[in-house]
Amino acid sequence: MKNETIIFMDKICKSFPLEIGGVQQVLFDITFSVNSGEFVAIMGPSGSGKSTCMNIVGALDTPTSGVYELYGKDITNMTADELAIVRNEHIGFVFQNFNLLSKRSVLDNVMLPLMYRGITPTDRVLRAREMLQRVGLEKFETYLPTQLSGGMKQRVAIARALAGNPKLILADEPTGALDSKMGNEILDFFRQLNKDMGITIIMITHEFEIAKYAGRVMHIYDGRINYDGPIPKSESIFMKKTR
After folding, report:
1. Tens of pLDDT, residues 28-60
2. In this predicted model, what pLDDT tens digit does every residue of 141-188 receive, in sequence order?
């Protein structure tokens, strides 16, 4: 449903213990919401806290304080096992380094998330083949990832992310390991998924030119959101906000 709030974060903070004692706080009062069908880029320099924020959004980590609701359900204090179910049922992940199993075929890699859902082998194959066709790789199902180009590997990763029919895809620096031409092809494909299928996409990037593919950008600096809105004409607005 369009305009349905699928992510709601309220005053999320995150701290990590230090080996020398004490803690280091990396997120401070992060508050935002994301509606169904949005394409959001989360920007920020290295060490800004954007990846930590993404890990919490993706139920890969939990906040130290604050409230996180996903699809209207409070998942803030769920156990690791409960969060694993949330990830498998609701979220598709696309990573910078693809995270494919190098010794398993393209088809096996795409089927992997479906194995944990109790889906029959026959239905897993059908679904995986459908997703490979969607990303234009139906002729490569027997190939190993090592036999593919970087752009093809990322398309396999996208097919895997789509296999579970998620409403939400989280992409962490999805073009970081690709050249500019392949990177632009992947970003065009994300835009197509967002426009044609209504899939909500949240993408981590440190590059303004990549963020422009989204419809909204959040800029994180020193663990705080200092801009959240439409894509500005220039990234200089982010610098102004931090002073």
Report:
1. 999 999 999 999 999 998 889 999 999 999 999
2. 999 999 999 999 999 999 999 998 888 999 999 998 888 898 999 999
Q: What angle do CA 60, 16, 221 make, to 5 degrees?
A: 80
What range defines the domain where residue 81 resides?
A: 5-242
Q: How far apart are CA 109 and CA 107, in angstroms?
A: 5
- The rounded distance, in Å, linking the Cα atoms of 136 and 154 is 12
CATH of the domain at 21: 3.40.50.300
How many of the other CB atoms lie within 10 Å of CB of 117? 13
What total number of domains does the chain contain?
1
